[in-house]
Amino acid sequence: MAIIIMILLLSFLVLIHELGHFLAAKAFGIKVEKFGFGLPFGPTLFEKKIGDTTFLVHALLLGGYVAFPDDEKDCDLPEDSPERFENKPVHQRAIVVSAGVIANIICAFFLVLFSALVWKYLPSGVYNIEIAKILAPKDASVWSSGLKVNDRIVSVNGTKITNTYALLNIVQLSKTHDGLVDMSVVEKNYQKIKNLNPALGRNEVIPKDVGVRLPKNIVKENPIMMDEHTALGLKKYSDNQVKLSNDIIQLRDYINKNTGNRYVISDGKCTLNDIALAISDNVHPLYIIVDRNGKNIRLKPIYPSSSGAIGVQLMSKEVLRTTDSFSDAVISSGKYLYQNTYMMLVGLGQVFTGKVPLKDLHGIVAITKVGGDIIHNDGLFYGLLLTAIISMDLAIVNFLPIPALDGGQLLFLIIEKIAGRKVGKQVMETLATISFFLLIALMIIIVFNDIWALVTQKL
Questions:
Q1: In terms of Cα–Cα distance, which of 299, 286, 316, 296 is closest to 226?
Q2: Could you give the CA distance from residue 225 to residue 237 in angstroms, rounded to a whole number?
Q3: 290-329 exposure pattern, b = at least 16 Cβ within 10 A, e = fewer
Q4: What gap in Å lies between CA 186 and CA 421, rounded to an integer?
Q5: Residue 236: its pLDDT value, please?
Q6: Is residue 234's pLDDT more than 60?
Q7: pLDDT band, residue 171 (cuts 50/70/90)
Q8: What is the number of other CB atoms lying within 10 angstroms of the CB of residue 252?
Q9: What angle is formed at CA 245 by the lines to CA 243 and CA 250, rounded to 5 degrees?
Q10: Which of 408, 381, 409, 243 lies closest to 320, judged by CA?
Q11: Which residues, 6+ apart, have CB-to-CB distance to 46 below 8 Å?
């Protein structure tokens, strides 16, 4: 039932989008030949002409279209008719093209506002992250740290934790032997090595078979010179990190195998700086503060594994903000949409820059499944809020300057306004056709990702 509700909500968004185009066209006296709800493939469930517009409902509901006389080859409307879309001024055509996006934005706001007024709450974007289970082997550092089930994580290495992303990111950045080092740690380790080997220069190649004394604290039980102020946080690690070369990684592995010797024998190629880099890629302790029964407790260091895990199952509980008054509901709704839209734009930027690979992109199938689960587990209001976010996403994607989308059509109109003449019809059709097939190819990849995620139970 929850999935059916989600399908209906998504279909509603498409209907709102096309209704925006339809109403704007009618407002400017443009004839609308067809208003289609659903994709024009397969059987047509309903067809009726009302006024001069034929309304159709297709079996595949997740789609829609508005067709103008300009789109119909057999239309008997004269070429110079003021009811044709192409014969309207640029600014009117731009409004009609943008109206679907505007309708989705307005719809998104009112869905959030409705939830705020009726539910009296809105998600704050801040989460309490609690420990549900400890799953690590008995010899893992998490057991000796003092961490307990139901502890709420307040901060890690000085970074306040308000969502699982921040926590998991720090843990991943702090995994053992990851080939990355923090230069502040490298400098401290170099000074320790230099004090033990005063005759050797920093970048001087150490002669072959010469032994170099190592500091005591390069093993897990006695970690590198770190405390909660110098341990790796999100911003600090990103600013200071250096990726080790393959030669340094080989030196690191050699030292780790022979840490009991307290010295390393030079191969005639390494320097003191190389050794400092090698021993700095060791363990990165997590200094965690938890809230336990209202009291902040500082735990003993926890050391992530080489895969970036500490062996706990997390439980995330979002903090809700109350929206008791109408003005508070309006302001909170605006903030909620702004925050989530910003995150979507960041995510879209990561897709175009390649930071998010194609295999991680998901679409309508995944949205329907996840949305259905949210409605089933968290209630209808969470489903409405997700629908609002999807409506904003639909608006953003449709506004991209791609010829097959509304944004592409708007781009052609802007060019027409600047150049003083229309873009050639053949050019527009060619670009639209190419971009259409590219979008279809992308949709096939996304649907495959969705189905694969369902089959492998990743959704």
A1: 286
A2: 15
A3: bbeeeeeeebebbbbbeebbbbbeebeebeebebeeeebb
A4: 63
A5: 46
A6: no
A7: confident
A8: 23
A9: 120
A10: 381
A11: 55, 56, 57
Residue 167: closest CA among 328, 308, 360: 308
Lowest mean pLDDT among 23-27, 148-152, 294-298, 351-355: 351-355
Asked if residues 408 and 401 have their Cβ atoms less than 8 Å apart, the reply is yes
Pairing label, strands 295-298, 288-292 = antiparallel
End-to-end CA distance of the chain: 18
- In whole angstroms, give the CA distance from residue 341 to residue 396: 9
SS3 string, the chain, reads CHHHHHHHHHHHHHHHHHHHHHHHHHHCCCCCCEEEEEEEEEEEEEEEEECCEEEEEEEEEEEEEEECHHHCCCCCCCCCCCCCHHHCCHHHHHHHHHHHHHHHHHHHHHHHHHHHHHHCEEEEEEEEEEEEEECCCCCCHHHHCCCCCCCEEEEECCEECCCHHHHHHHHHHCCCCCCEEEHHHHHHHHHHHHHHCCCCCCCCCCCCCCEEECCCCCECCECCCCCCCCCCCHHHHHHHEEECCHHHHHHHHHHHHCHHHCEEECCCCCCHHHHHHHHHCCCCCECEEEEECCEEEECCCECCCCCCCCCEEEEEEEEEEECCCHHHHHHHHHHHHHHHHHHHHHHHHHHHCCCCCHHHCCCHHHHHHHHHHHHHHHCHHHHHHHHHHHHHHHHHHHCCCCCCCHHHHHHHHHHHHHHCCCCCHHHHHHHHHHHHHHHHHHHHHHHHHHHHHHHCCCC
> CA-based Rg of the chain, rounded to a whole angstrom?
30
Cα–Cα separations (whole angstroms), residue 291 to 155, 163, 285, 341: 10, 15, 19, 31
Whole-model pTM?
0.71
Question: In the Cβ-directed half-sphere of 126, how many Cα atoms lie within 13 Å?
Answer: 8
- Which among 332, 406, 412 is positioned nearest to 104, based on CA atoms? 406
- What tokens appear for 124 in the block? 């704050």
Specify the amino acid at residue 424. Answer: G
Q: Is the pLDDT of residue 279 over 50?
A: yes
Amino acid at 319: V
Q: What is the C-alpha separation between 425 and 37, in angstroms, rounded?
A: 27
Higher pLDDT, 193 or 443: 193
How many of the other CB atoms lie within 10 Å of CB of 257?
A: 9
Name residue 389's amino acid.
Answer: I
